[in-house]
Structure prediction request, 159 residues.
Amino acid sequence: MKTIKQSQKGLTIIEFTLVSTLMFLVTFALIEFGIYMYSMQDLNNRSREAARLATVCYPLDITDDLSSVITISYLDASYSKVTDIENDFSIIRFVKAEINDNYTFRFSGILSFIGDSGVINMPPLETILPSESLGILRVEDNGSLETSSCSLTYKVELE
Prediction:
């Protein structure tokens, strides 16, 4: 006659296999979701850095090198876009930096069922900061502006 202990001899390994598989799936899903959140925060930080750089640089020094990645706009007190920066320089009150919305994130492995085969669009990210010096050090006695030599060598490398 078999005892209860002998009939449950292999049950422990089966229970461990089932529980550990579930735990590994949850752990790797959390890691992958953490990478997604890190990517969103990294894009948000790049938007904030670009806006901060634009608040202290002379607006006419900003070139189109960043236009494929980041759009920098100058806003007046009512948050309307200033179109003629050269002539309406004195009404600039805010600087807005937007990450262009053509970035996607691909989940791999466990979370590949999310979105379109694991690919989801990143949300549009923008930062609005109050304008500071805008690169102007002071107005000379003759009415000309002395500006800082701020060159935008800020490179944004996004995958």
